[in-house]
Every structure is written in structure tokens, then in C-alpha cells.
Amino acid sequence: MRKVIVVTGPDLDPSAEELVAAHGFETVHTPPYADSAVIAELLTQTGAQGIISRMGRIDAAVMDAAPHLRVISKHGVGVDNIDLAAAAARGIPVLVATGANAASVAEHAIALMLATVKRVLPLDAGLRAGRWEKPGFLGRELAGARMGLMGMGAIAQATGRMAKGLGLTLCGYDPYASQAAFDQLGASRCDSFDVLLEQSDILSLHCPLTDQTRGILNADAIGRMPAGSTVINTARGGLIDEAALVAAIRSGHLAGAGLDTFAVEPPAPDHPFFAEPTIVMTPHIGGVPREAGARVGVDAVRGRLQV
Questions:
Q1: How does residue 292 score in pLDDT terms, banded at 50, 70 and 90?
Q2: 73 has pLDDT over 90
Q3: Three-state SS across the chain?
Q4: Distance (Å, rounded) from C-alpha 113 to C-alpha 298?
Q5: Is the per-residue pLDDT at 298 higher than 70?
Q6: What is the pLDDT of residue 307?
Q7: Which positions are annotated as active-site residues?
Q8: Beta pairing class for 254-259 and 229-233
Q9: Taking 60 as the threshold, does the pLDDT of residue 164 lie above it?
Q10: Peptide bond before 266: cis, by omega within 30 degrees of 0?
Q11: Exposed site from 40, 57, 164, 186, fewest CB < 10 Å?
């Protein structure tokens, strides 16, 4: 009998592939962002015992198409694309690669912050178009600004450490985190999301997407942020009410946003974000540099092989 792991995505780091082969397994890959029917068909064809979840949704129908399925291992930490209730009902453990890409995602959050606040992209575009926009330009200094961290997991903590190096002061909100997490980072603890919003010149989102957090950054929440503040999101696009974000940027209440994730990925070609020069966007690649890809891939494979 073939020993197969289905990877929902077109690739896996070579170090992870080597680990798969060393344990007598083989990987079979789906196309990027395959729908559930495509994933289910591949599972049926291969008799796969494991899934490494990268792109696409793993729902009950997918699980039922794989009677030999023993584990689902997430290539990362966000499991909003996996039906956890369906997995639990079928006795299928869902594992995550906690912390493996924290440094990479944190670096990307800082890069988005710098590019957005310093207006790198519109200034670059203006220069290329023949405009010398120094006269009258007023930038913003980040040193002394307040960064609010929504969530205090490994990525938030890595982001906070980097932000402190730039002179930002930190506050955070996470009802599930220990006080030690705040103390070690030197961040003040907010007792509510509203307080976090009110204290955030830069709001950086680092929480999972759940029924409780979906659309949590809505018009009311954005209105509580200081005028001229900035939103950075390297977590999940569904955390943000995208129409409210655009409205706040167009009104001038928000100075801009740096986004690596979107409610629907990839976003439609006519998405209103594309018309806003103060929104800096990247295609959900914060956690996939080569080094992080190797760590996450190996962790995901190890999780599969240990079950």
C-alpha cells in the first residue's frame, strides 16, 4: 500500500520532502488554491493517510473522501481553512507548526509598517513619473509612536521586539496570554480591545480568525483609533471589514494600511484596495521566505509522522 501525504499546494521545501521520503512516504500536490472537490478527488485516488494543509479548504467532505486519513498538519498556524469540528467528530487530530515562521512574519509586518508610514510606494511612483515631491512633503517619525498588538503569540512578540528597536512603545490585548508574555516584551496590557484601539498609532493584527474575531476591525473599531493611525495585518484578512477600512482611508481618519492577507484570496481585480495608494499590499507571503518555509515544512511533516 502506498504511503501518501497530500499537500494542498504546489510545493514543499526540499528539506521537508527529504524527511517525507526518509520515512517511506511520498507527497502528492494539489494545484494552488484547489477547491474542496479537487482535494477530495485526489485523496480518494491516492488513499492518503495525511494532509499537509497549505492552500484551500479542508471540510467534512474532504475528510470523508479519505477513509485512511490519520492527521491533518497545518503548514503554519492559521487553521481557519480547516473544519475543526468535523475533524474532531472523526477523531482526526489537527496539528500546527507553532512559531516556525514567527521571525519571517514579524519582519514582514515591520516592512509593511515602514513602507506604509514612510509612504515609500507612492513616493517611488511619483519619482518614476517625473515628480520631485520634496517641497511641502511632511513625513512621520516612528520613534515614540505607539504600536498596539492584537494577540500576543509568537509572531506578535517577535514583531514587538523588532518594533522596540525602532523606538516604538508597545501595548497589547490578548485575554488568553499570560502576564509574563507582556512583561517579557515590556508591553503594557490593555484590558479590552477598545482600549487597545484607543492607544494604537500603529495597530498590528496577530490573532486567529474565529467566529469571535471575524470582522473585529469594523467601522466602529476603526473610529476608536487615533486620527492618522495605521493598520498592519499579517494574520487573516477576515479580521477586517474591508469596506470600512477603505472608507476610513478615504476620509483621512486612517493614514494607510499594510496588508498581507485578504478576506478572499486572491482579491478580485477590481477590489477597491487597488485604487488606494496609501494601502501597501503583498500576496500573503509574510511566512514563506526560504528559511521559514523549511522550518514550517519540516515541522508540518514531523507532526504528520509522529501521529
A1: low
A2: no
A3: CCCEEEEECCCCCHHHHHHHHHCCCEEEECCCCCCHHHHHHHHHHHCCCEEEECCCCECHHHHHCCCCCCEEEECCCCCCCECHHHHHHCCCCEECCCCCCHHHHHHHHHHHHHHHHCCHHHHHHHHHCCCCCCCCCCCCCCCCCEEEEECCCHHHHHHHHHHHHCCCEEEEECCCCCHHHHHHHCCEECCCHHHHHHCCCEEEECCCCCCCCCCCECHHHHHHCCCCEEEEECCCHHHECHHHHHHHHHHCCEEEEEECCCCCCCCCCCCHHHHCCCEEECCCCCCCCHHHHHHHHHHHHHHHHCC
A4: 30
A5: no
A6: 44
A7: 236, 265, 284
A8: parallel
A9: yes
A10: yes
A11: 186
Give the predicted TM-score (pTM) of the model: 0.82
Q: Which amino acid is at 298?
A: V
Contact 42, 30 (CB under 8 A): yes
Please report where in the chains the cell 476610513 appears, as a residue. Answer: 248
Q: What span, in angstroms and rounded, lies between the C-alpha atoms of 39 and 57?
A: 9
Q: Of 141, 192, 150, 155, which Cα lies nearest the Cα of 170?
A: 150
**Residue 296 confidence (pLDDT):** 57
Give 263's Cβ-side CA count (13 Å radius): 17
Average pLDDT, the chain: 90
- Rounded CA separation 214/236 (Å): 9
